[in-house]
């Protein structure tokens, strides 16, 4: 947070010299208008990225590691939908630099990462494969990097409590080791389902189904009312529930179910039912009362926005919700009418928040407010979410399903990727360097001073 404030000042200052004051505008039914708005927002996002303290380390953000993966995922979609390749070199540099032993578990950070942190990079890699994002020779293929994440996560499937499930964090000394959460399980579920559709290898589909079925035995996926609890604990055998409602938890299960529906040729009704059920319960993120008269048409992170308590992680979730849901409209016939109208009105509201900073373009957190954020809170995360919803609307125009190995996808499968990894042993505590501790310390500080109880259930950055 301290960093963001510093960056906003710096960025505002440098752009003010150019003397252009503008606001982003968009006609959501006009593809070119969407592209122009997306270009402005993506450029502002990359200005934040390029001014970070750790800019000598490709793909590493200050104070967080996972957001690199989710930002590249969003930018890869941006390239695919607009053809604007100006950020491709930065995407490639960051993705390859952080690839670890082809598993996105680089030793600099692996001591304190969670399964959710790692899986976002895997989702970025499968996204790249599905759109034939350019690969560099001498580097592992995008799909193999996604397989590397799958191959390192599956051995962590934990049957010592709750009869299964992915723990949130990986090492016993991490506080999140004792919880199993929706995004770690839903993230691997989605990754497995996408690998199944891309490679047609049934092993991935079996894992996707295993994760879904297991989740349904816990509060993480309550099929009775399609509620998704954020987390549950090993201690209670996964019977208790941290009930904060987050957009990305719903979106990751919806998306995985959409891919499984397509992979199974629609023969298993459970996937379509899952998509429909969870789309129904996701309506809660389009509040109908209050919210500046949003009237059920503006996507909101309802747990933190009304009380102004969204942390940097949470400010990005709407990017994934928008992008992933729009994506499945291309592979699950009949979902477009359920998904797109509200993403259309949400995009309109989202760009109305982009009036901040010295360039007059920086976006706010609360789309329904139709106002930007206070100057000291303007940051990369808000840009990412708005780019996500603009991408989502561009998917309507592109209307092209994800590629797969038997349907134009050129990224080559390597089912053994990541199995050579050297970082899968629990590290010895005194090997955690001062630098790592400092990173963790900053996060702890934010948690304690912020919103400790709620955030305990969240991705801890890393
Ligand atoms: C790991 O840390 C070193 C030292 O700061 C840095 O040079 C290197 O780029 C980092 N690697 C990754 C993958 O971030
Ligand atoms: C889906 O249909 C295709 C084409 O008929 C077939 O090759 C494939 O095996 C089917 N997939 C599944 C999972 O049944
Ligand atoms: C799967 O997606 C393709 C688009 O690639 C679509 O034509 C097909 O109808 C989908 N299959 C099912 C069962 O919905
Ligand atoms: C399918 O994936 C599994 C798990 O990674 C792997 O062991 C197997 O070799 C793969 N099969 C093919 C035909 O690629
Ligand atoms: C594992 O490492 C060896 C030696 O470096 C290499 O020859 C092999 O291709 C690697 N396997 C995989 C699956 O990456």
UniProtKB/TrEMBL annotation:
<keyword id="KW-0472">Membrane</keyword>
<dbReference type="InterPro" id="IPR005198">
    <property type="entry name" value="Glyco_hydro_76"/>
</dbReference>
<feature type="signal peptide">
    <location>
        <begin position="1"/>
        <end position="22"/>
    </location>
</feature>
<dbReference type="GO" id="GO:0009272">
    <property type="term" value="P:fungal-type cell wall biogenesis"/>
</dbReference>
<feature type="compositionally biased region" description="Polar residues">
    <location>
        <begin position="407"/>
        <end position="426"/>
    </location>
</feature>
<keyword id="KW-0325">Glycoprotein</keyword>
<dbReference type="Pfam" id="PF03663">
    <property type="entry name" value="Glyco_hydro_76"/>
</dbReference>
<dbReference type="GO" id="GO:0016052">
    <property type="term" value="P:carbohydrate catabolic process"/>
</dbReference>
<feature type="region of interest" description="Disordered">
    <location>
        <begin position="405"/>
        <end position="426"/>
    </location>
</feature>
<dbReference type="InterPro" id="IPR014480">
    <property type="entry name" value="Mannan-1_6-alpha_mannosidase"/>
</dbReference>
<feature type="transmembrane region" description="Helical">
    <location>
        <begin position="438"/>
        <end position="459"/>
    </location>
</feature>
<keyword id="KW-0326">Glycosidase</keyword>
<keyword id="KW-0378">Hydrolase</keyword>
<dbReference type="InterPro" id="IPR008928">
    <property type="entry name" value="6-hairpin_glycosidase_sf"/>
</dbReference>
<dbReference type="GO" id="GO:0008496">
    <property type="term" value="F:mannan endo-1,6-alpha-mannosidase activity"/>
</dbReference>
<keyword id="KW-1133">Transmembrane helix</keyword>
<protein>
    <recommendedName>
        <fullName>Mannan endo-1,6-alpha-mannosidase</fullName>
        <ecNumber>3.2.1.101</ecNumber>
    </recommendedName>
</protein>
<keyword id="KW-0732">Signal</keyword>
<keyword id="KW-0812">Transmembrane</keyword>
<dbReference type="GO" id="GO:0012505">
    <property type="term" value="C:endomembrane system"/>
</dbReference>
<comment type="similarity">
    <text>Belongs to the glycosyl hydrolase 76 family.</text>
</comment>
């Amino acid at each position: 947070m301290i960093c963001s404030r510093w960056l906003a000042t710096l960025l505002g200052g440098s752009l003010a010299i150019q003397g252009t004051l503008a606001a982003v505008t968009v006609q959501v039914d006009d593809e070119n208008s969407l592209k122009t708005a997306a270009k402005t927002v993506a450029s502002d996002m990359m200005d934040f990225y390029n001014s970070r303290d750790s800019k000598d380390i490709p793909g590493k953000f200050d104070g967080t590691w996972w957001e690199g993966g989710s930002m590249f995922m969003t930018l890869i979609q941006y390239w695919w939908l607009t053809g604007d390749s100006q950020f491709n070199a930065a995407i490639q540099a960051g993705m390859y630099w952080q690839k670890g032993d082809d598993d996105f578990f680089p030793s600099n950070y692996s001591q304190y990462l969670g399964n959710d942190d790692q899986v976002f990079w895997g989702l970025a890699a499968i996204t790249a494969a599905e759109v034939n994002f350019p690969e560099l020779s001498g580097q592992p293929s995008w799909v193999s990097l996604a397989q590397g994440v799958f191959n390192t996560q599956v051995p962590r499937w934990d049957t010592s409590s709750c009869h299964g499930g992915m723990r949130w964090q990986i090492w016993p000394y991490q506080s999140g080791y004792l919880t199993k959460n929706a995004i770690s399980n839903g993230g691997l579920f989605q990754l497995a389902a996408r690998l199944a559709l891309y490679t047609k290898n049934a092993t991935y589909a079996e894992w996707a189904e295993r994760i879904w079925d297991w989740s349904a035995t816990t509060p993480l996926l309550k099929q009775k009312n399609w509620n998704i609890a954020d987390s549950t604990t090993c201690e209670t055998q996964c019977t208790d529930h941290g009930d904060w409602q987050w957009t990305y938890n719903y979106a990751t299960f919806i998306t995985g179910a959409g891919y499984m529906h397509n992979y199974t040729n629609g023969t298993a009704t459970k996937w379509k039912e899952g998509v429909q059920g969870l789309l129904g319960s996701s309506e809660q993120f389009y509040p109908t009362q209050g919210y500046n008269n949003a009237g059920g048409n503006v996507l909101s992170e309802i747990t933190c926005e009304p009380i102004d308590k969204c942390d940097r992680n949470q400010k990005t979730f709407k990017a994934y919700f928008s992008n992933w849901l729009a994506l499945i409209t291309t592979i699950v016939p009949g979902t477009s009418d359920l998904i797109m109208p509200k993403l259309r009105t949400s995009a309109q509201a989202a760009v109305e928040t982009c009036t901040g900073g010295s360039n007059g373009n920086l976006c706010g957190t609360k789309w329904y407010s139709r106002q930007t954020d206070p100057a000291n809170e303007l940051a990369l995360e808000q840009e990412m979410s708005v780019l996500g919803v603009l991408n989502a609307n561009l998917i309507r125009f592109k209307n092209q399903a994800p590629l797969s190995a038997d349907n134009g996808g050129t990224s080559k499968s390597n089912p053994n990727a990541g199995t050579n990894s050297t970082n899968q042993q629990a590290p010895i505590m005194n090997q955690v360097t001062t630098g790592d501790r400092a990173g963790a310390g900053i996060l702890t500080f934010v948690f304690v001073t912020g919103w400790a109880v709620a955030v305990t259930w969240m991705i801890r950055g890393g």
